[in-house]
Amino acid sequence: MAWQRETDLGTKPAPAMAQDLVAIRIDGRAVTVPAGTSIMRAAAMDGTTIPKLCATDTLEAFGSCRLCLVEVKGRAGYPASCTTPVTPGMVVRTQTERLKKLRRGVMELYISDHPLDCLTCAANGDCELQDQAGAVGLREVRYGTEGASHLGQEKDASNPYFDFDPSKCIVCSRCVRACDEVQGTFALTIDGMGFGSKVSASQAEPFFSSECVSCGACVQACPTATLVEKKVVEVGTPDRFEVTTCAYCGVGCTFRAEMRGEELVRMVPWKEGKANRGHSCVKGRFAWGYANHRERILNPMIRSSIDEQWREVSWDEAFRHTASEFRRIQVRYGQRSVGGITSSRCTNEETFLVQKLIRAGFGNNNVDTCARVCHSPTGFGLKTAFGTSAGTQDFDSVMATDVVIIIGANPTDGHPVFASRLKRRLREGAQLIVIDPRRTDIVRSPHIEAAEHLALRPGTNVAVLTAMAHVIVTEGLVNEEFVRTRCDWDEFEDWADFVANPRHSPESTEALTTVPAGAIRRAARLYATGGNGAIYYGLGVTEHSQGSTTVLAIANLAMATGNLGRDGVGVNPLRGQNNVQGACDMGSFPHELSGYRHVSDDAARAMFRELWGAELDHEPGLRIPNMLDAAVEGTFKGLYIQGEDILQSDPDTRHVAAGLAAMECVVVQDLFLNETANYAHVFLPGSTFLEKNGTFTNAERRIQRVRKVVQPLNGLEDWEITQSFAQALGYAMYYDHPSNIMDEIAAVTPTFAGVSYDRLEAAGSIQWPCNEAAPDGTPIMHLDGFVRGRGKFVRTEYVATEERTGPRFPLLLTTGRILGQYNVGAQTRRTENSRWHEEDRLEIHPHDAEQRGILDGDWVKVASRAGDTTLRALITDRVAPGVVYTTFHHPSTQANVVTTDNSDWATNCPEYKVTAVQVGKSNGPTDWQEAYNARAARSRRVANIQAAE
């Protein structure tokens, strides 16, 4: 689309509860708007633009710039239209001679203290100050620019993504208000008074080292070039845009990808995006430069052995060779000797094709996905309790919540745009309970503080939640009407008897969980009686040996208190990657077809058989751990991996390496030569989200379009690669566009039956289920009843993990994410985000550090029963004594070298969050880390050769 600025109505709409309409007259025309609407917005809705600078419809009205003055009949003076609500019968004039003179006078003052470099300014043509000067008819500045001014102030270019030029600042406070109201970081302020007023980051620090989290809200809010993207300065203002969806976390933010020619200039969060509502984080807003990174591989490569050098080949040769190898392996070792792994970073359409290739082309169900290692317990637990394998609410629902439980999630780092909305609700008065071994930022940050922080011992989630249930049941806090109406009463009574047992009381479990009994009792009472209660959870729930049990315990709490089936409540998994939900929906597990139908379901298989022209195996296939086991045993020999780096992301790295090394043909389809590619025989260069069409499904079940912004640098979109591989293998796949694939998905997947690209274009996004029963989608699940019929209560017996501490390994290691980096870091490490987070660090409590003679920044060795690694120490009381924590974004530290092969009892989801370790001082990287650095250097040389060619 041709570039144009998004429509800005000046102020926010009237409160949703405003039902009354108010009739007024603006410039002689009758206008009717909801009560509470500002004059400015009412005029804009009628097509009249009132000049403004401090006003924008993403922020609360401020009334400081004085450009938006109007005349109101019968009222003295000239009120600001942004802060004046309409009243019945009001008569407004927006353009009179007096108003013209006042506005020109105000604008003269602004321009007298502003650089007159419009022709060379980065915002030329995209500057609201420039626009408004024209709008008010400014033709001369009587005051000149010779007096005192701010024109000589020094530019701050410390942030890698944007510049701050205070000489161009008009002190409208939009950046400060955006940081406060939208982001909730409160990193900016107006320093000084009167003429000396200026914007300041933290305590007059450079932006880079301040509390600013580089979300970009201030840049987006700025009406001048005071805050401007470095890319705009370098390239110029955009001339076209496409609306697409972010490829980072499960929030699913929608962006305007703004282009100049074929070059991406900036990603601007789209105000119409229903998941992000015009906000973003540092990753989605700025960290897209990896798409053009010099290490990206653009040509297919093959080799006979992993000890050989890569050889570049054409796409045709790559497909012929790969198909030949897979046919050879199946002839020699059997039909089930090969399989594939789908990607939670790729689109629904691409994921659907990979599992189709495996089931219909390979002839087996050996398909799995990275969702196995993050949220498979969510699928099992929620399907068991409610009948659907997904969260119950949309993100907007949090604004109607009264009590929020955050368990095993760090939303300010992992899901920052959702966290900003949550913090806004907390500032409005909602109460917060955090259940986490660490004191994350959401526990305490500017203007918010958790009512309770249950800093439990890692691995005791089930015990804590069952203790909360004990309080709710024994103190008579159950919503009996909801349970009798919506749930199986006999199962509830059995569960209630179980949790009421004194051995589940907070006092009995205190020694096990390390959480004071009083804190658990207060948290349980608050959740049960505090109004609308919502639970949000993450990988700190699912990545345990009792991950599925914990999800069931969460579901039990929600049902027992009646916190389901309406706005402001629910059970909400915060999905890690952009399309984890979609990967699960598309049939990426070895036992399930798309829509979560079991492969043994004869009717479901018959539907697929008729459409695909292939007989489907009725036996579940191998999960990723089983594939690796079978490879070591010699029965599994070929693996097609789309967009995943299992050597870095999966547990027990040595076992993963052994399994990959035992295979005869490993195919990696990705952007970069990742860790898994060290064991690959074929490398198929993938395409980025900017180079493809398709859809992602976010954590709230929202299906959103991904639109091609630029042509694929490798020549093919990922779905085209899979299709060509299938054709070379002898299985017919012929699609002209991903919309055709979506039509097929809708035909075989009941929850997607009403989804099409035409529907998505018209609606913007759709939340499944979308079918005949719910033609417009389903923002909130289980309104009148559960999908499974009656809600199912399940006993949640605490079973201690097999991973125990002792004299050799006295500490518990848990892992997580950090704001600037993403997952295994393949994308973010190749952007300027690494300037904030250059390495993984081991967080250790001062007491544990002192016992070991460790100082902040020291190299330390972390050893477990599975392996060891080294990294630098970060001494902090964010972790409790006996607990250490690290991130897993950098392959040079490989946190998963030390994690074990323990996994969830129901789904095999690895137990990343509980590993017994010992920590001691080290002289630096281990031998394997030095070997990794050598391999990484070789990979960079290969990439650099391709880039040079």
Question: What do these coordinates show?
Answer:
- This protein has 949 residues and is an alpha/beta fold.
- The chain has a seven-stranded mixed beta sheet, covered by helices on one side. A six-stranded mixed barrel has the order 31-35-32-34-33-36.
- β18 (444-445) and β19 form a beta hairpin.
- α9 (348-362) crosses α26 and α13 packs antiparallel against α16.
- The chain is globular.
Short summary:
By secondary structure, the chain is α/β, with parallel strands linked by helices. The protein is built from 29 helices and 36 strands.
Strand order of the largest sheet: 13-12-27-26-25-14-15
Question: Uncertain segments of ≥5 residues (pLDDT<50)?
Answer: none
Supply the number of helical segments.
Answer: 29
Structural class: alpha/beta
Question: Quick check: average pLDDT?
Answer: 93
Name the overall outline.
globular
In helices, the fraction of residues equals: 25-40%
Q: What percent of residues are in strands?
A: 15-25%
The major β-sheet equals: 7 strands, mixed
Draw up the topology in text:
Elements: E1 21-26, E2 29-34, H1 39-45, E3 71-72, E4 91-93, H2 97-112, H3 128-135, E5 162-164, H4 174-183, E6 188-191, E7 198-201, H5 217-221, E8 227-229, H6 230-235, E9 240-245, E10 254-260, E11 263-269, H7 282-286, E12 301-302, E13 311-312, H8 315-333, E14 338-342, H9 348-362, E15 367-369, H10 376-385, E16 403-407, H11 411-414, H12 416-427, E17 431-435, E18 444-445, E19 448-449, E20 452-454, H13 461-474, H14 480-486, H15 489-500, H16 506-513, H17 517-529, E21 533-537, H18 539-542, H19 547-561, E22 570-573, H20 580-585, E23 592-593, E24 597-598, H21 602-612, H22 624-633, E25 638-642, H23 646-649, H24 653-661, E26 665-670, E27 682-685, E28 694-697, E29 702-706, H25 718-729, H26 738-748, H27 757-763, E30 765-767, E31 811-816, E32 841-844, H28 846-851, E33 859-863, E34 868-875, E35 883-887, E36 915-921, H29 927-948
Helix pairs in contact: 8-25, 9-25, 9-26, 10-19, 13-16, 13-17, 13-19, 16-17, 22-24
